Amino acid sequence: MREKQTEKINIMNTSIKIFAIAILASLTAEAQTDADALRYSIPFIGSTARSMATGGAFGAIGADFSNLSNNPAGLGLYRKSEFVFTPSVQTTTKKSTFFGTTNVDKKSTLNLQNWGAIFSYKLGKDDDLPEWKYINLGFGMNRYNILSSRAYIGGQNDISSIGNYFVNQANGNASDNLDGFLSGLAYQAYFLNPDTNISGNYIAASHDASSLKQTKTINSVGSLGETVISFAANYANKWYFGGTIGFAKVSYTERAIFTEDDNKNQSKNFKSFTYEENLTTRGNGVNLKLGTVYKPADWIRMGLALHTGTAYGLSDTYKATMTTDFDTTITQTSSADNAGGYSYTLRTPARLIGSVAFIIGKYGFISIDNEWLNYRNMMLSPTKDFSGINNLINVKYAQANNLKFGAEINLKPFAVRLGYAMLGNAFGSGYTSNNATTNYTGGVGYRNNNFFVDVAYVYSQSKADAYYLYSSNLVPSAKTTTQRGTAVVSVGLKW
Q1: 124-149 burial, b for 16+ CB within 10 Å, e for fewer?
Q2: In this predicted model, what pLDDT tens digit does every residue of 181-232 receive, in sequence order?
Q3: Alpha carbon of 114 to those of 1, 49, 143, 350: distances in Å?
Q4: Which are the contacts of 394, defined by CB distance < 8 A and separation ≥ 6?
Q5: Domain ranges within the chain, ordered by starting residue
Q6: Lesser CB count within 10 Å: N end or C end of the chain?
Q7: Where are the alpha helices (DSSP H) in 40-88?
Q8: What is the pTM of this model?
Q9: 190 forms bridges with which residues in the sheet?
Q10: Which CATH architecture group holds 6-494?
Q11: pLDDT on residue 8
């Protein structure tokens, strides 16, 4: 271990702060990854209790506030004005397995799923005439993904230390040329030290421990939503056309704490290492949705909608802190941050949604939606800063289908609903990661001429995903699964 002279420590800490600021412009882009682009590109299955209870398969059914963010032509099927308000409670359970050790953690959040109003204007007097019947306007907010969760990963690693990752990154570089947020920060925290046997190389403080307890806690809070302004028209009660301008909003905070502990007391000096990262992302975006619904007969409806990708302007603030504890009770801490944040843009994939619904008289319906999107079309800008990440997106991700089924049984004034949805895997066949998600949904509702209340529950389960605590060349992935339970209540007034 290096000599711990107070003057030297002070000089080095001052140097790293100056160094971090000097190289900030070239490093901040590295904080954004393909995983960030994916996080803000994945859709969920609806926003009202009625649409969520039927698996989100509401593109051709219409007359539901979720249509403003699904197929805005469904707005044209309204014949009354409406106000709706939808709170929800979501519990997310993360299960991980790392070196044979399984851990489970869960987190619950209270959310506002949507609110909004529809204003319906009747134009024609005779329903048998082939003329424009209604013009409808709508506005409000739809929240289409909740990003809050907590995961705990931990196990005994007999293969490597995160110090090996920093060593590989640092070797061959002078100490003042190390990455200010990774190997350079580890150097300042005395977790990475000069190798006295090989000039220009480094050695980790944990090098003499062959088995280390490693843990990582990831706590995230946030959501994706949009303020919507929509217009739709009804022609001859057969053709419905609509459009939505969506003003999207991203709010996301993540705190990740990695620890490495010499719990078997194998090292002569090293005791533990802690690496904490804090990321906050805020931003706004805009998109356009166009749709149509055609009703060739009373028993069938067909819908088609096109969503442009959302163009986001995002800003990240990031802080990293590393702390090394030694058996001699000495603790060394160093930190760096991108003061002022880093701004960039993200374009999410466009989506095409095809829908068909079979209306069973006054007794209910069966509906199917299929959504196509290509995750390769995600793009971060400016492209000169993100060329590597954009190239990775192009080879790592793939086209996906989101298939949704729903049914409603009408027992006036009550209704019973069931649904199922399979949200496809965003990753290509050459990658072990698989984020495909299965949703099982159900709910009940009560409606009269002027009031309705709907209740839904959505159970979601993802396939096992691969998560690496650090370099995939040094450590096997932790296998993680996500289960999510969402309880939703929509209350509405009609006039």
Answers
A1: beeeeeeeebbbbbbbbbbbbbbbbb
A2: 999 999 999 999 999 889 889 999 999 999 999 999 999 999 999 999 999 9
A3: 57, 10, 6, 23
A4: 376
A5: 6-494
A6: C
A7: 49-53
A8: 0.87
A9: none
A10: Beta Barrel (2.40)
A11: 35
